[in-house]
Amino acid sequence: MSRIFRLRQLFFAVLTILLFSNVYAKDNLILCNNSIVNSRAIGEIEKIGTELKEKSGISAYICVKKSIGHEKIKKFERNLTKNIKGSYILLTLALKQQKVDITTSQDIKNLIDIDAILSPFTGTIIPILTSRKTKDKYSAAVLNGYADITDRVAGKLKIKLKSGIGDTNRILIDILRIIIYGSFLYFIIVYSVKKYRYRKKRK
Predict the structure, then answer these.
(1) How many CB atoms lie within 10 A of CB 155?
(2) 86-141 confidence digits (pLDDT tens)
(3) FRET label pair with 166: which of 5, 72, 180, 201, CA 20 to 30 Å apart?
């Protein structure tokens, strides 16, 4: 009888651990979404984030909101992360306010160059957000930004993430960056030439 009781205890203990782990995994990454980032991107984010957590102990979160009202994004992030324990990174996107930001816990703030990630020239988020593409644009921007963040952290810590999205996406983003900023530069040149010719005719 005591053996059956011990087996039952063991069974419920294992079940509790599994249930807790599952809940933790779901709550660990997506702090808010508002149905903006699609399920496919969320699935990839969860895979990458879970592997990073297992290998480094760092939790990488995302929060995507249609609007944060009149609240400053830094204050919004502080309120969102005030109860988080342990090392963390948070990628936040507010659509209406056209704001994107990254914040980290103090202990790992030197692991990533936030300015580089959010730069339109070296980052992976802004080029997608500024593209004309409308379908799943935010999903692509968040997923690629998240992958960029976690890859940079993994690189600093000398760990390999098998679930990373690889170099193919980075090449596509570089091509997109060239197209966007190349077009912008082209229009500036054309405008400058026309303005110069117009002034020359008036002389």
Answers:
(1) 13
(2) 999 999 999 999 999 999 999 999 999 999 999 888 888 988 888 877 678 999 99
(3) 180
Token pair 């005030």 in the structure block, residue: 82
User: What is the side-by-side strand order in the sheet with 88-94?
Assistant: 30-32, 59-65, 88-94, 99-104
Tokens of 175: 């091509």
| pTM attached to this predicted model | 0.71
DSSP state of 86: S
Q: Given the structure tokens 């651990």, which residue do they identify?
A: 17
- Please state, in angstroms and rounded to a whole number, the distance separating the CA atoms of residues 73 and 88: 17
Nearest in space to 57 (alpha carbons), one of 172, 133, 157, 163: 157
In this predicted model, what pLDDT tens digit does every residue of 166-189 receive, in sequence order?
Answer: 544 554 444 444 544 455 454 566
CA 124 to CA 147: how far, in whole Å? Answer: 9
